[in-house]
Amino acid sequence: MTSAVTIWTHALIALLFMAAAGQPGDAVGLPRRRFALALGSTALWALAVAGIGAGDLAARMTESARNIAWLVFMLALVRRRQGSRGWGPVLVHGVAIAVALVAAALALLASVVRDPQSADLLIETMVVFRMITAASALVLSRDLLAAAPGPAPGGVRLVSWAIAGLWALDLFAFSLRYAVPDAMPWLVAGRGAAMIPVGLLILAGVRRGGNWTLTPSRTVAVRSVAAIAVAAYAGSVVLATTLASQVWGEDARAAQAAIVLGATTALFTLLSTPWLRSWTRVMVAKHLFSHRYDYRAEWLRFAETLGRPDEESTSLSTRIVKAVAELTGSPAGLLLLADQAGLVPGTAWAWGGDDMPAGSTDAAIAAHLSATGRIVEVDAVRADTAPPGEAAAMPQWMLDRADAWALVPLFHANMLVGAILLARPVVDRPLDWEDLDLLRVAGRQAASYLAEERAHQALADARRFDEFNRRFAFILHDIKNLASQLSLVARNAERHADNPEFRADMIDTLRSSADQMTTLLARLSRQATPRAEVPRATDVAAVAASIAAEQRAGHPVVCQSTGPVWAAADPARLEQVLRHLVQNAAEASPPAEPVMLSAIQEGACAVIEVVDRGCGMSPAFVRDQLFRPFASTKNGGFGIGAFEARQLVTAMGGRLEVASREGEGTRFRVLLPAVHDLEAAA
C-alpha cells in the first residue's frame, strides 16, 4: 500500500516540477537558469524515489543536489529583490549550503562503510544535518518573503510561499524520521502526498509570466488554516503517543489513552470557543490579506440581512442594526433615532436592556454627529484621546456601559436620521481606517433604508387620509343632492300644494330623503361595516321607475320602459347611480323640461339611459374633467357625482357612457350585464 502511494505521488511531483520548468518565457523577477536548475533537480529526486526508493544512494544524492539548488536559487532571488551586492546573504546561504554538502557526504560515506552499525549511525547523523538544513532554509525563506520593499509580482510571491512550504515539510518529515525510525515507509508516502500542493503552487506562480495571482476567499483561507491546525494537532498527538510507546514500552497503553482523551477534549473545547474562531478570522485577515474585509462578501451579506427577514429580526430596524453589527463582528447593537429633542433609543439587536436609558434625549451628541459626521470611538473618549467637542457631547450612559465600542451616525441626504451604538467585538481591537470607511458607507445605506421605510409609512398614512377624504366627499355630495332635492320640492310646493298627486309624490320624496339621510349617518359611524356588494338579478326597469317617482316631486321625470329588464346589479348601488345622474340632469335642465329615464335590453347588455335637454357639456370637458373629482360646470358643484357613478357602475361589472352637446343636452348610458328571464326567475 505505502509503496504504491509513494510511486504515484512522487511520479506526480516529477511531472509537476518538469511542467513548471518547461513553461515558456521568463517569470517576472525570477532568476530563470537557477530556477530551472532547482525545478529539474527536484524532478530528478522525485523520479529516483519513485523508481528506486528513498533509501537508495541515488535518491539521497539527488535530494542533496535538490537542496543545494534551491539554496542557490534563494540566494540569487534575495540579491535580485534587494538589489544588494554585499557578502552578508552569500555568507548566510553559504553556511546552509555547506550543511547540505555535509549531509550528502555522510550519505555517500554510509553507502561504502561495511559495518552496519556505523552505517546506521552515519544515516542518523545525515538525518540530523538534513534537519539543520531545512531549519536554516526555513529561516532564510522568511527573508525571501520580506525581500521586496514594495508589492512583489504574484508569481514571485507564490514561488516564495512554495519554497517556505517545501522547507517546512522537510523539517517536519526529518524530525519525525529521527523520532520514529520505524515509520519510514509511511513517512515517505506522506511526504510525497504533501509535496503535491507545493508543486501546484510553483506551477501556478510561473504560469503567464509570473503574473498569475492566487486569491482565495477569506472563508477558504480560514478553513484552510483551521484544517492545517487540526492536522498539525493530530500529528502532534500521534507523535506523542509514539514517543510514549518508545519510552514506556508495553506499559504505555494507559499513557496513550490519557494523551488521546486529553487531546480530544482540549480540541473540542477549543473548537467550541467563539473567541478562538473570531481570533482566527482576525489573524487570517491581518496576516494573509492586504485588507481586513472581503468587501464583496461583506456587502452581499449586508444586503441579504437587510432584504430578507428571519426569525430573530422581523422588523427592518432590527435587521439594520444586525447587518451593521455583523460587519465588524459586534455581538449586539442599539438603534438611536433622531427627533427634535436629539437621539432617543429605538430598536435593539441582542442588546441587554437593563441599563438602556428610558426616555433619554441625547441632544448634545446628536448635534455633534450632525455637525461632524464622525464615527465616535467610545474607548477614545474614555481614554481622553478624542477631540474635546466629542468628549463633551458624549452621554454618560454610553461611557458607563463597558461594552459600548463605536457610535455610527446614519445620514440620508446630509440629514441625521439616527445612529447605531455597536457593542465591543469578541476579539477587542481599536477601530482602524478600514472599519471607519466600511461603517461610514454602511451607515449611509442603512439610513436610506430607514428613510424609505418612513416614506412608506407616510405614504400609507396619506392614502388612509385620502380614502377618508374621498368617502367624506361622496357623502357630502349626497347630502348636497338631498338638499337640492328638498329645495326643489319646497319650491314646487308653493305652486302645486293643492294637487293631491303632488302631495303624494312629495311625501314619498320626503320619506326617501329621510331614509337616505339615515343611511348617510350610518356610513359616517365608526362602528358601521361596509355592506357586501354582490351583483344579483335585478329588474333595472323597476329601479328606474322608483327613482323617477322619487325625483318627480322636485323636477319632472318621465320613465319609459316596455317591461322588466333584468341585469346583474346591486340594487342599492344602482339606485345611488341613478339618483346622481337624474339629479345632475334636473339641475342642468330648465324647470319645465322633463328628464327622460328609460331601461331597455341591447344584446348582452341592459341599458339605462338618462337624457336631459339642458345646457350640455363641451367635448373637452367630457374628455378631460367630467369623471375627475372636484371638476364641475355648475357653480358650487363638487364634481363628485359622475366620478362616483362611474366607480359604482364599474364595480358592478358594467360601464358608463356619455354623449353631450353644448346647448342641446346630455345622454348618460349605464350598461350592465344582462340576465335572461329564465335565469332571473331561477
TrEMBL record:
Bilayer-crossing regions: 6-23, 35-55, 90-109, 121-140, 161-180, 186-204, 225-248, 254-276, 404-423
Enzyme Commission numbers on file: 2.7.13.3
Domain Histidine kinase residue range list: 474-676
PROSITE patterns for the chain: HIS_KIN (PS50109)
Keywords, comma-separated and alphabetical: Kinase, Membrane, Phosphoprotein, Transferase, Transmembrane, Transmembrane helix
GO terms assigned for molecular function: phosphorelay sensor kinase activity
Enzyme class: transferase
Catalytic activity as recorded in UniProt: ATP + protein L-histidine = ADP + protein N-phospho-L-histidine
Superkingdom of origin: Bacteria
Stated name of the protein: histidine kinase
